[in-house]
Amino acid sequence: MKAVQLTGIGKLVVGEVAEPVIKEDRQVLLKLNAVGVCGSDVHYYKQGRIGGEAVDYPFIIGHECAATVKEVGRNVKSVKAGDRVVVEPAISCGSCSQCRAGRENTCENLKFLGCPGQVEGCLCEYIVMPEQNCFKYEKLSTGQAVLCEPLAIAVYAVEQAAVTEDSDVAILGAGPIGLSVLLCSGLKTEKMYITDRVKERIEAATNNGALWAGNPDREDIVREILKLKPEGVDVVFECAGEQETIDQAIELLKPGGKLMLIGIPEQERIHLDIHKMRRKEITVINVRRQNDCTQKAIDLISKGLVNVDFMLTHSFKPEKTAQAFEMVAGYSDGVIKAVIEF
Length: 342
Known about the structure:
The chain is built from eleven helices and 19 strands. By secondary structure, it is of the alpha/beta class. It folds into two domains: 2-147 and 308-341, Quinone Oxidoreductase, Chain A, domain 1 (Alpha-Beta Complex); 150-286, 3-Layer(aba) Sandwich (Rossmann fold). The longest helix is centred in the middle third of the chain and has 14 residues, at 148-161. The model has no long low-confidence stretch (mean pLDDT 97).
C-alpha cells in the first residue's frame, strides 16, 4: 500500500509498505479517506520527538483521520464493510486501574496512532484498529469527520473547565484546537477572548463567536483583555504550547481561575510563576487528549450545533504531504487545517 513515511528531520517520503491485516476478532481494516495534519505531527516532523517519545526512522505519523471500513473481524458488531467512520486514535486497554476509573485517556497501557514506540500512524492507505475506536457517521463530510478528533479534545477541555454562561474565557492560540475550544465554549458563554499571530485565524475567530480577538505581535493582549475584564477571566485555555502564552495566561486569570494547558510545548520544561499563581490560587489542569468525547463531537457537527467547515483551508494529495507540513509548520498561506486526501 502507499504510505507517507517520516525518514528523518523534515523528510517525508511516499513509498510502498505492506498492507496491514486483521489479526484479532474485534479488529477492523480501514481504508483511509483523509488525514489531518496536527501540530503534534509537526513536532515529530521538525524535532523528531515530543519529550521522551523519539521517532525511530522510518515511521508513519498522523492520527486525525476519516476512513471507510473495508473488512471486519468475525466478532465485530458495531460496523460493517462500507461504513464511514471517525477514528479515535487512542487505543486503551479497558482493564487497567485508570480505565476502570473512567480515565481511558490516561490508560496505563495506552497506544496512540502515530506515536513512536506505540502504533504507526494513519498517513497511509490502510490501517487496522479495534472496533471500539471506530465511530460510524452518516451526515458528515470527510473533512468534518477529520476535524472530529481536535473537536473532541475541545469538548473534553471545556467539560473539564466547567464553563458556564457566566464564565469569561480567554483562548490563547487560534489553531484548530483553539478554534474548536472557541466553538465548544460558545455553546456555554458569549464572553470569549482569543489571540493568535496569524491574521486569517484572528479573522476566523472573530467571525465564529469571539467577543474580542487580538494579535500579540501588534498589541499588548494582556492589557487589552484586562481593559475589558479588569478583574481577570475565569478560564484560560492555553492552546499554543509557548512560554509566552503561559505567562500571559497567569496574568489574565482572576483569583480562583483555571489554567487549562492543552498546547504541547517544543521544549521539555516550562516555567510557571509560582508566586503569582499561589497568590491568585490558580488551578492548573493538564488536558490529556480527550476522554470519551468522540461521539459527542460527531453529534455536535451532525446536529448543526457547531460549524467547523471554516477550519478546512487546504487539501493535498499524499505526494504533496511534505508541502502540507511545511505550510503548517510555517503558519503560511493562512492555513488553519491542512488535510491529506487518499
